[in-house]
Amino acid sequence: MDNNSVNLIELTVLGLKYSRGDKESNALVLKEKHGDRRIQIVIGTAEAQSIECVLRNVRPPRPLTHDLMEIIINTFNIRLAAVVIDMLPGGIFGGTLIFDEEDDQKMIDSRSSDAIALALRTNAKIYIHPALIDAIGIMADDESGDKEIANKRAYNNNLAIKRLLEEEPESIESLEKRLRKAIETENYEEAGRIKAEITRRRSASKSSEP
User: Fold this and answer.
1) Cα 131 to chain center, whole Å?
2) 112-159 pLDDT tens trace
3) Do 161 and 135 meet the contact criterion of CB atoms below 8 Å apart?
4) How far apart are CA 37 and CA 39, in angstroms?
5) For the chain, what is the mean pLDDT?
6) What three-state secondary structure class fits 76?
7) Which residue in 31, 71, 84, 90 is a FRET match for 124, CA 20 to 30 A apart?
């Protein structure tokens, strides 16, 4: 992860915000480790409870789902190197689990809340792509209670997210060139990410064939 982490921004978990009007709405607040920008991710109640258990250092009598996954990871001596928060089509947050495996790395897609819950339990670092936090991050001292300002900020963030999602995707040929370069420079984490994207593109292309 070290070679490619220079292209990502590390995040830390600040805590949870619970909606007053909707018990099912919980926001997970993260902050860039070496900066002041923050992001909020809306997560489910079960995931919020799981994350809060870690933040409060509480162990339930029987393991929760994320506790069980942590036990499996530790039992089989698997190392979760890092998780990367990204955004899926439609403006939904997603996550990528990056596991170390000898001289290679394996990547698994997940929900952002599951990725963060596991990262907190295994001391894995949490990263986000610079373009994404540039689009949606807000400054710590910019969290105004003014509704009009908040609405303008949300509107601007939505425009930035829309532009980010509408960017023309990189061609498979370009991805393959980057894959070869990543392998040559032994940047296995980057190579794994690119390979996963190529596989996803080709699978989507086959499924759309008549």
Assistant:
1) 13
2) 999 999 999 999 999 998 888 988 888 765 554 454 544 445 545 555
3) yes
4) 7
5) 79
6) coil
7) 90
Residue with tokens 């993260």: 30
**Sign of the torsion angle spanned by Cα atoms 64, 65, 68, 73:** negative
Residue 209: both structure tokens together: 């064939």
Sequential DSSP letters for 61-116: SS--HHHHHHHHHHHTT-EEEEEEEEEETTTEEEEEEEEEETTEEEEEEEEHHHHH
Q: DSSP characters for 14-66?
A: EEEEE-SS-TT-EEEEEEETTSSEEEEEEE-HHHHHHHHHHHTT---SS--HH
3-state DSSP assignment of residue 88: strand
Decide if 1 contacts 125 (C-beta within 8 A): yes
